[in-house]
Amino acid sequence: MNKHVQSKTRLNNGIEMPWLGLGVFKVEEGSELVEAVKAAVKHGYRSIDTAAVYANETSVGQGIREALADSGLKREDLFVTSKVWNADLGYDSTIAAYEKSLKKLGLDYLDLYLIHWPVAGKYKEAWRAMEQLYKDGRVKSIGVSNFQVHHLEDLMKDAEIVPVINQVEFHPMLTQKELRDFTKQHNIQLEAWSPLMQGELLNHPLLKEIAEKYGKSIAQVILRWDLQHGVVTIPKSTKEHRIVENASLFDFELSQEDMDRIDGLNENRRVGPDPDNFDF
């Protein structure tokens, strides 16, 4: 596990997904994003994560096409994720949203499609649509994002297909132990968004001390901590040197003592919305 930048985890449907990917949250359409995607692929990334609400799928798609042309890689060498937004969480509207995302990305299929937020009373119909897309071979894998344990339990009561992924806010200040245990028990892969807490952790004294011990940056220590917890991680950057740095995680390993010390930073503190109390 976690031997190099292209190391993969096997999802519960047998599909393999890279442990490390590029996140593009809040990166606007345009050349900066196109170049970031190209740089990521050039430096070994094989997973790109976007969403309809990010309003940047067109540039992500352009970056993917140009990266494939430059590298000689094939579409199937990349793992591309997008997400259905809250306003589209009906049966027909979810299918329509999927087709719209494909069109913007310029792709024939997605490797992973996620329900972005657990909107009460809506996510089950959306899941039924996603199950149909999966059965029809239109998408390789389906999952959820920002689901708490009770959301997963509710969804799985009626679902034919267990989600392969739950992508959630996860970092040393929000270690989500109960959720990690639940997803592991049900063979649902946990994935971290905002692994660096939107930069808030990059001056933390304990993390600085640990980073100096290993000769690594604080970001590298946090991302390595993710991987050693068995959590897929998708750090965001548009800077090529940061994209390279964020992938340089495979030549060191944190000791159990240091893993425990980082775990001890948990305050159950979020930088994003609470999945039980959001309004958008």
Automatic annotation (TrEMBL):
Pfam families: Aldo_ket_red. Residues 31-267 form the NADP-dependent oxidoreductase domain. Transmembrane segments: none annotated. This is Oxidoreductase YtbE. It comes from Paenibacillus cineris. The gene is ytbE.
